[in-house]
């Protein structure tokens, strides 16, 4: 199969967004996927488009990516189920309320609209939350979407521009301008972009750790939850790099179904449900929203986030001049897919990017990884 | 935590036989079933005729009770919290069961195939309507078309007629030629023949049309008529109800959740009825659609094996081999003709939980792809109905089974009793 400028490995939401961006830049692209479009890490998560302010670089990439989602939103097919629900960062006590105000300041400096809700306003916005909460920060332009269909939308747009898609092609080796498949065949191109989500078998030395999560989806209860609800304690839990943790995080779907999360565990690469973690995750959710107790849960599943030590993705070149990365998004792959795609293709073509790309360069932690 | 040496899931013919055998051989045995009484689907008790008792059912239940095994009805297995425990729902509360040996006798369900009009009110599963009637649903004076495939159709038609329904026709998609080896096998098994003859007597002049199948149901608010074809001619009959089922598919979800592997659609078992997962046995329809006699003999073997009886009686092994041959003839006789896999139009709903149409599914490449991109099989029934249909229509093998097996209140995962003040699902 001659004549490709770029081989993208992985047709998750990041790989598909990169394929579209590369096609728009005029590259001849083939994207390969071992399973189905958006069937890996993309399918496991919630689909929250959210601006996060863990670090200035994270804020820059999520804000940029969200702005791209907002631009795209009117054209997205109905199946993507994009809804501008807004995020409510919920403060349980005064300490967390102080965080609400500092978060608002940070967002304001970055030009991200947000609004502080007092307990009464919070109760009006989400009447099923327990009473006694301290308040919340509403980030109205955050969104929710259904990730596998979003990935497929990027791919179908890319294919309209001539991108070739190979499904059911498992890659066993990649690098030096060559991608080799499990069936013995291989393809070559000047550039390879690895976007394989939490699957790092192809480059086991990548400084990525799998962080397991559990999710439960309920039957249809339209109107019970209106915003994506996240406890501010989530930030404490998400920041912990070692211990297992759970946090209240709930997403209303267009169907009226609720996705209930979240849990974070290191060192468990199995797909099995950990019932102890599931239990504490759901107890946490019930603590914030007692009515969840009686809602019908129809399915529980697990997935793995691809986490880096500094919580930032790996976007850009590697020591192998043919090999580029768009990996390590942890829980922000859906949010960051459009922005990461622009940065990755900019890096590939040596173009300057709209935002500073250096914080995401893989070279920033390669040394540490080697010595680790 | 409720201990049992041997835990049997399902109190149908296989489960009762397994429990009886294990209990007689010294095991402490408990049988869980989601119905209020023992008997499973085939021996479902008839609340309108409590004194009319099936002899085989009565004998199996009597033997079961004499054996000392315990029946715990009204319990539905919803999850596998750890490798040796099961979570059961019992009337809104939750119980955990621990086991040393587990015997899965989870039976089968009807297969539905989509055709225009199959989702209209008035269209029932054949076995489903029979179960409703046994529960008191009145059919007297109703004009009913019974259609699809499998030996169940005749049984259902006979039963509905006993309750005063007027059977318009029984439309069996299999051709007479295809069914001949099955009819011959009935001659070799007088017991099965008597049962069949009994049906024919009850049915009297009811037309039983082979090589005939439904292609659509018509009606606005509810079903008014059914269009049938024999491939050469197409005609429409007026009716009030359509009882329709395309033979049976095994209930293997619990086995899969426990890590048992499937061979094709069925749970893989060895000569002891043991699955590849140590200590877990399986018997009856989940190991192959073969009917009540096979279920009983396989159940007995599983019960004896779980009680460490060695060697197993050769007469049982011989009977199982005979029933396996019957099963092959049954499968052959009622295999689906290609035409019944092409009845759906683009707009025909295939997944009723998520309103996914045949047209939406046609472009997908496999079950996972269909689930992710159309939500087919992602609703409360977890693909139990559409999964069997898409397997027949597209050859898609359903992939992973996820907990819970049936929707349960979120609190059930936390061992709390569920709240009654929760908003209700729409």
Based on secondary structure, the structural category of chain B is alpha/beta
- Percent range of helical residues of chain B: 25-40%
Task: Count structural domains of chain A.
Answer: 2
Q: Report the major sheet of chain B.
A: 7 strands, mixed
Low-confidence stretches of chain A: 368-372
Quick recap of the structure?
With 372 residues, chain A is of the alpha/beta class. Chain A has ten helices and 18 strands. Chain A is globular.
Features:
heterodimer, A: 372 residues, alpha/beta, FAD/NAD(P)-binding domain, D-Amino Acid Oxidase, Chain A, domain 2, 8-stranded mixed beta sheet, 18 strands, B: 426 residues, 7-stranded mixed beta sheet, 12 helices, 24% strand
Please tell me about this protein's structure:
The complex is a heterodimer of chains A (372) and B (426). Chain A has 372 residues and is an alpha/beta fold. Chain A folds into 2 domains: 4-45 and 147-207 and 310-371, FAD/NAD(P)-binding domain; 84-142 and 208-307, D-Amino Acid Oxidase, Chain A, domain 2. Chain A is built from 10 helices and 18 strands. Chain A has helices at 13-24, 41-44, 56-72, 94-109, 119-125, 147-160, 233-239, 275-288, 333-349, 363-371; strands at 4-9, 29-32, 48-49, 87-91, 115-117, 135-139, 143-144, 164-166, 171-175, 178-181, 186-194, 209-220, 228-231, 245-252, 257-266, 296-307, 314-317, 323-327. In chain A, the strands form 3 sheets. In chain A, strands 1, 2, 8, 9, 10, 11, 17 and 18 form an 8-stranded mixed β-sheet that branches. In chain A, strands 5-6-4-13-14-15-12-16 form an 8-stranded mixed β-sheet. Chain B is of the alpha/beta class and 426 residues long. Chain B has 3 domains: 2-109 and 249-312, FAD/NAD(P)-binding domain, CATH 3.50.50; 112-246, FAD/NAD(P)-binding domain (3-Layer(bba) Sandwich); 344-394. Helices cover 32% and strands 24% of the residues of chain B. Chain B has 12 helices and 22 strands. Chain B has helices at residues 13-24, 55-67, 126-134, 152-162, 176-188, 190-203, 253-257, 292-306, 314-333, 358-362, 367-374, 384-394; strands at 2-9, 29-32, 70-72, 75-82, 85-90, 93-104, 108-110, 123-124, 143-149, 166-172, 208-210, 213-218, 225-229, 234-238, 241-246, 248-250, 262-263, 266-267, 280-282, 349-351, 356-357, 408-409. In chain B, a hairpin with a 2-residue loop joins strand 5 and strand 6 (93-104). The two termini of chain B are 34 Å apart. The model of chain B is unreliable at 416-423 (pLDDT under 50). Chain A binds chain B through residues 35-39, 43, 79, 128, 148-149, 152, 167, 216, 218-224, 256, 260, 273, 275, 278-279, 282-283, 285-286, 290-301, and chain B through 81-82, 365-366, 368-369, 372-373, 378-380, 382, 402-404, 407-416, 418-423, 425-426.
């Amino acid at each position: 199969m001659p004549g490709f400028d770029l081989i993208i490995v992985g047709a998750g939401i990041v790989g598909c967004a990169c394929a579209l961006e590369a096609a728009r830049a005029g590259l001849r692209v083939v994207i390969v996927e071992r399973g189905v479009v958006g069937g890996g890490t993309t399918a496991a998560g919630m689909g929250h488009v959210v601006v996060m302010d863990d670090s200035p670089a994270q804020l820059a990439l999520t804000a940029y990516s969200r702005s791209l989602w907002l631009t795209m939103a009117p054209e997205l097919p109905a199946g993507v189920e994009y809804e501008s629900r807004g995020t409510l960062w919920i403060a349980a006590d005064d300490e967390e309320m102080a965080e609400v105000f500092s978060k608002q300041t940070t967002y304001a400096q970055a030009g991200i609209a947000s609004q502080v809700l007092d307990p009464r306003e919070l109760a009006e916005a989400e009447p099923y939350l327990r009473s006694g909460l301290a308040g919340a920060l509403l980030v109205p332009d955050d969104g929710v979407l259904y990730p596998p269909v979003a990935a497929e939308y990027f791919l179908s747009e890319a294919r309209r521009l001539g991108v070739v898609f190979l499904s059911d092609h498992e890659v066993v080796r990649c690098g030096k301008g060559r991608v080799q498949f499990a069936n013995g065949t291989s393809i070559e191109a000047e550039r390879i972009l690895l976007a394989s989500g939490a699957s790092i078998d192809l480059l086991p030395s990548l400084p990525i750790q799998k962080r397991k999560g559990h999710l439960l989806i309920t039957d249809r209860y339209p109107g019970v939850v209106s915003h994506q609800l996240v406890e501010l304690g989530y930030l404490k839990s998400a920041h912990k790099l070692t211990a297992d943790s759970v946090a209240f995080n709930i997403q209303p779907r267009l169907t009226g179904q609720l996705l209930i999360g979240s849990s974070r565990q290191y060192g468990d690469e199995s797909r099995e449900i950990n019932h102890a973690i599931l239990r504490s995750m759901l107890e946490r959710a019930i603590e914030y929203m007692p009515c969840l107790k009686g809602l019908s849960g129809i399915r529980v599943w697990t997935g793995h986030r691809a986490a880096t030590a500094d919580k930032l993705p790996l976007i850009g070149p590697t020591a192998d001049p043919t090999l580029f990365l768009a990996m390590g998004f942890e829980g922000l792959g859906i949010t960051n897919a459009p922005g990461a795609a622009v940065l990755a293709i900019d890096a590939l073509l040596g173009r300057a990017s709209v935002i500073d790309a250096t914080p995401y360069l893989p070279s920033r932690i390669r040394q540490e990884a080697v010595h680790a | 935590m409720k201990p049992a040496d041997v835990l049997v899931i399902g109190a149908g013919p296989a489960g009762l036989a397994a429990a009886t055998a294990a209990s007689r051989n010294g095991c402490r045995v408990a049988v869980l079933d989601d119905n209020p009484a023992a008997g499973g689907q085939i021996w479902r008790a008839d609340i309108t005729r409590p004194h009319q008792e099936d002899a085989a059912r009565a004998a199996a239940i009597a033997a079961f009770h004499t054996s000392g095994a315990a029946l715990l009805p009204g319990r539905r297995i919803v999850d596998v919290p750890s490798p040796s425990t099961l979570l059961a729902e019992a009337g809104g509360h939750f119980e955990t069961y621990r086991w040393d040996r587990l015997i899965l006798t989870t039976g089968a369900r009807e297969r539905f195939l989509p055709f225009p009009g199959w989702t209209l009110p008035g269209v029932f599963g054949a076995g489903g309507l029979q179960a409703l009637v046994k529960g008191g649903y009145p059919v007297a004076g109703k004009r009913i078309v019974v259609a699809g495939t499998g030996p169940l159709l005749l049984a259902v038609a006979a039963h509905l007629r006993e309750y005063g329904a007027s059977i318009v026709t029984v439309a069996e998609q299999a051709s007479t030629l295809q069914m001949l080896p099955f009819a011959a096998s009935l001659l070799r098994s007088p017991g099965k023949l008597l049962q069949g003859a009994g049906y024919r007597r009850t049915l009297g002049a009811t037309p039983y049309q082979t090589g005939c199948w439904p292609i659509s149901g018509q009606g606005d608010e509810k079903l008014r008529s059914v269009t049938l074809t024999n491939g050469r001619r197409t005609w429409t009959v007026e009716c009030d109800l359509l009882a329709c089922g395309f033979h049976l598919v095994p209930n293997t979800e619990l086995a899969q959740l426990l890590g048992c592997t499937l061979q094709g659609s069925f749970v893989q078992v060895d000569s002891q009825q043991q699955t590849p997962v140590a200590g877990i046995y399986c018997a009856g329809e989940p190991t192959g659609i073969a009917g009540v006699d096979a279920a009983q003999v396989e159940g007995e073997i599983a019960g004896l094996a779980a009680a460490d009886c060695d060697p197993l009686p050769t007469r049982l092994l011989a009977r199982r081999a005979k029933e396996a041959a019957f099963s092959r003839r049954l499968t052959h006789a009622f295999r689906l003709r290609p035409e019944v896999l092409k009845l759906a139009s683009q707009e025909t709903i295939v997944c009723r939980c998520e309103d996914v149409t045949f047209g939406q599914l046609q472009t997908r490449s496999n079950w996972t792809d269909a689930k992710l991109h159309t939500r087919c099989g992602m609703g409360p029934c977890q693909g139990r109905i559409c999964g069997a249909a898409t397997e027949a229509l597209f050859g898609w093998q359903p992939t992973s089974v996820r907990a819970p097996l049936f929707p349960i209140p979120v609190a059930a995962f936390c061992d709390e009793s569920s709240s009654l003040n929760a908003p209700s699902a729409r």
